[in-house]
Amino acid sequence: MERFYTASEVSFDAFKFVEYNLWPGAAPGEGRYAAKPAFQYWKPEKKTRDSLVIICPGGNYTGLAYVGDVAKYFNSRGITAVVLQYRVPRREGLPKHMAAWQDAQRCVRVCRLYAEDWGIDPNKIGVLGFSAGGHLALMVATSSRTNSYEPIDPVDELPCNVNFAAPVYPAYVLDDGVDGPNVNGGIGAKMVGDFAFDGNTPPMCMIHGDADEVSAMGSVAVYAKLREMNIPAELHIYANLGHGFVGNLTDGHAGDWLNRVYEWMGAVGF
Fold it and tell me: What are the C-alpha distances in Å from 172 to residues 17, 97, 138, 157, 210?
């Protein structure tokens, strides 16, 4: 199957990655000269695992936050990482997540295309995301049997399901926070209809802070749904933590969440 053009290897803060285009031309619905979404392939210096983590930055579906330190964490443990640069801002006339969801489904497929080249198991691909990226991770994990775009080439014959997921303080999960903070703290709210929870929905590890204006009750609701479906799930809610603690990986309390995700990946075989 055809391989895509890759940019020159780029060095950043003593780490190196290669950037791949997601689409052979313009992304679905985009004009010819629109910015092209891509992903960064972060290869560990000493690969000891055959799993892959796709990382979805947050940013309210209007921008993208820096998540390179998270990619470095997985690389330091011998795990390959991909940082998805999905399309922002939101596309007019479409659901807020649609362009990003198309890019994310395509990213999973392209990663499967390169699995043998990268030395990863195509059945050990996971997704991790923050805030809006956490919502996107849930879209990828729960709705892989729903195509977000029409196939454009043979790559789209590859499956777009992921094998594990770790949504971190996912936004827009409950109907009292469809497009912002939860107005009632998520108490008594229902899950939005974005997520299909189809037969390919994988095990998940939910991470949240109990002082988050994006209520941790969204993660609780997802956890409860997974357990109703008898899908293995883990839930960590940290006391007195608000939104956006991905930026603090050194604090013994806030920074501990990545270790919980790493240990959970081992517990479920990834």
Answer: 31, 10, 10, 30, 16
